[in-house]
């Protein structure tokens, strides 16, 4: 044997037979054995309790206190598998003693007259080897059972001639049976457990393996004894002796959870594919290795590639607007719980380039984190933007020309007016002066509309009360009055210069429509929703409120017969509001005049 054997020898001292002493001396001199001696059964029990590493007990029958049979019974109660050799002297040994020893589970029974050192060593070695083999088998069986339970696996073996089978405990459990059940497994009874639609398949595989030795490895459905549908992986191989198949041996594993996960992922993939296919815009899923994982029909149609071709490509292959490093960074740095929006250009299989707006977000796809991107063709929008840019450019050119061509004769007319005043005093000169001033204002407004557009520069905190007071100084208001409500002490976030244009034009509009003695009030709206500018003039009829911001509109309520309402003032107001992403509405003032409410304004604490 590969390892040493520890022996506990228990005897009664000086009365030990010479043959036993000789035999034990032989054992002691053998390097395989280590012998520990005690002189009573009680001492032996103490040594066993203190040190459980003994491999065998050798005991005399005649001992004071407990005799050998009683000692054997005590050892068997505490150590049922420990080898025990009982030695009886010729004068005390009898068939009765031998029978009692066997009844109490003795491993070997020897007479001193027949004992020798070689015989004792051989017997001890044989019993220890059997005990160790038995323990190893039990450990292996426990390990097999534990492994089968953890992996939900079982094994089986079938006689190729009779079809009788042996199942491991795991195989019984997979079939919904207890290992202690009286079920008698055979090839035919085992096949009956399979789903009716899979039964012919498993029977063909097993018969072919038994007849030709062809192995198999399949995943099929099994209906357990308690009517549960399970997916199993079943394997089989032939065992041959002298060229003939004598057995087939195989394994069975419950793979239901894996199959359900696979089916769920497949259903999710199919549902997701149907979802993105139903989208009108181009959509695809990209993994973090920058590969297309799914594409919809719109992508196939727009880009001109087949689905298989796109799934073999990367975003780099179709993007003509971003550098490769930019695409990699966009994918790698995709924010969680946010949609990332950017513009780029896609190139089709024919080489056409399409401007697109991409909206991307993180999703879970087939158990992994991926990026869903939706691309919208913005060709029309880009064309409109380019056309609009051309029209602003043209308007700016027109405004400059008009401004230059009008300023010169306007300057001449203004100078002649002054000379006319020196020559005569006519009531018509005042109206002429007003008309010339109005023309100058219209030129300024035209330039503002053309050159400022709906753009704003940098936003900054602006004190509304202070701004309103400054704007009032820039308006011709000889007899008009400005009132600023106490709660107007608010600071808003805005482009100061453009906000000043808005307020000044509302002031001018109030003076022009409300008369020279109009009162203009500025105040804050409730809940810090914004601010208002109102007057106590004649107001704006409801029929005019929808079109009052249109360029060139003249209110029917104008108090001036000179067309004071005609111009660009309120159009500039609306333009500034739109540029700030605010909203403006017209309603009645507290005193019956016009009230302009600007909402959506961001207040600063």
UniProtKB/TrEMBL annotation:
Enzyme class: transferase
Listed EC numbers: 2.7.13.3
Segments forming domain Response regulatory: 6-127
Molecular functions (GO terms): phosphorelay sensor kinase activity
Provenance organism: Natronoglomus mannanivorans
Known catalytic reactions: ATP + protein L-histidine = ADP + protein N-phospho-L-histidine
PANTHER family named among the record's database cross-references: PAC DOMAIN-CONTAINING PROTEIN, PHYTOCHROME-LIKE PROTEIN CPH1
Keyword Transferase included in the entry's annotation: yes
The organism's taxonomic lineage, starting at the top: Archaea, Methanobacteriati, Methanobacteriota, Stenosarchaea group, Halobacteria
Xref: InterPro entries: CheY-like_superfamily, HATPase_C_sf, HATPase_dom, His_kinase_dom, HisK_dim/P_dom, HisK_dim/P_sf, PAC, PAS
Keyword Oxidoreductase: no
Protein name: histidine kinase
PROSITE patterns: HIS_KIN (PS50109), PAC (PS50113), PAS (PS50112), RESPONSE_REGULATORY (PS50110)
Coiled-coil region: none
Residue intervals of the Histidine kinase domain: 401-599
Top-level lineage group: Archaea
Domain PAS as annotated: residue spans: 167-213, 268-312
Keywords recorded for this protein, A-Z: Kinase, Phosphoprotein, Transferase
Residue ranges annotated for the PAC domain, each copy included: 216-267, 335-390
């Amino acid at each position: 044997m590969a390892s040493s054997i520890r022996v506990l020898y228990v005897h009664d001292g000086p009365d030990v037979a010479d043959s036993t002493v000789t035999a034990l001396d032989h054992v002691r001199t053998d390097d395989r054995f280590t012998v520990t001696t005690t002189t009573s059964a009680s001492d032996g029990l103490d040594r066993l309790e203190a040190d459980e590493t003994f491999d065998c007990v050798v005991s005399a029958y005649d001992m004071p206190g407990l005799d050998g049979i009683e000692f054997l019974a005590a050892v068997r109660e505490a150590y049922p598998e420990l080898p025990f050799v009982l030695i009886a002297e010729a004068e005390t040994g009898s068939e009765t003693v031998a029978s009692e020893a066997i009844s109490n589970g003795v491993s070997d029974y020897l007479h001193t007259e027949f004992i020798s050192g070689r015989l004792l060593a051989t017997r001890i070695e044989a019993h220890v080897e059997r005990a160790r083999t038995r323990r190893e088998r039990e450990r292996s069986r426990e390990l097999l059972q534990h492994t089968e339970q953890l992996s939900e696996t079982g094994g089986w073996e079938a006689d190729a001639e009779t079809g009788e089978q042996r199942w491991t405990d795991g195989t019984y459990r997979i079939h919904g049976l207890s290992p202690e059940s009286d079920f008698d497994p055979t090839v035919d009874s085992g096949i009956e457990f399979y789903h009716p639609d899979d039964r012919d398949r498993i029977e063909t595989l097993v018969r072919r393996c038994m007849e030709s030795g062809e192995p198999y490895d399949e995943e099929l459905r099994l209906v357990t004894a308690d009517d549960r549908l399970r997916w199993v992986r079943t394997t089989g191989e032939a065992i041959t002796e002298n060229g003939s198949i004598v057995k087939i041996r195989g394994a069975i594993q419950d793979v239901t959870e894996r199959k359900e996960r696979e089916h769920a992922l497949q259903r999710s993939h199919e549902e997701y594919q149907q979802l993105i296919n139903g989208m009108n815009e181009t959509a695809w899923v990209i993994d973090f290795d920058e590969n297309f994982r799914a594409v919809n029909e719109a992508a196939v149609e727009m880009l001109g590639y087949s689905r298989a071709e796109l799934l073999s490509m990367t975003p780099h292959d179709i993007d003509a607007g971003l550098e490769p490093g930019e695409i990699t960074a966009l994918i790698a740095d995709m924010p969680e719980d946010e949609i990332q929006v950017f513009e780029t250009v896609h190139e089709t299989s024919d080489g056409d380039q399409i401007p697109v707006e991409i909206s991307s977000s993180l999703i879970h796809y087939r158990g992994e984190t991926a990026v869903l991107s939706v691309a919208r063709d913005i060709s029309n929008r880009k064309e409109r933007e380019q056309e609009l840019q051309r029209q602003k450019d043209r308007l700016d050119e027109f405004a400059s020309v008009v401004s230059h061509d009008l300023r010169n004769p306007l300057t001449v007319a203004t100078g002649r007016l002054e000379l006319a005043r020196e020559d005569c005093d006519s009531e018509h000169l005042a109206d002429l002066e007003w008309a010339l001033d109005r023309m100058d204002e219209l030129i300024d407004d035209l330039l503002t509309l053309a050159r400022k557009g709906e753009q704003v520069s940098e936003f900054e905190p602006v004190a509304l009360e202070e701004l309103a007071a400054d704007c009032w100084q820039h308006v011709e208001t000889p007899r008009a009055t400005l009132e600023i409500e106490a709660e107007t002490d608010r600071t808003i976030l805005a482009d100061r210069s453009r906000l000043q244009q808005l307020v000044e034009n509302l002031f001018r509009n109030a003076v022009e429509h409300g008369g020279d003695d109009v009162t203009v009030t500025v105040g804050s709206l409730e809940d810090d929703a914004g601010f208002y500018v109102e007057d106590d003039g004649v107001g704006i009829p409801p029929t005019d409120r929808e079109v009052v911001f249109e360029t060139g509109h003249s209110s029917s309520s104008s108090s001036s017969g000179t067309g004071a309402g005609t111009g660009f003032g309120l159009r500039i107001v609306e333009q500034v509001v739109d540029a700030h992403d605010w909203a403006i509405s017209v309603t009645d003032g507290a005193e019956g005049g016009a009230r302009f409410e600007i909402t959506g304004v961001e207040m600063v604490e």
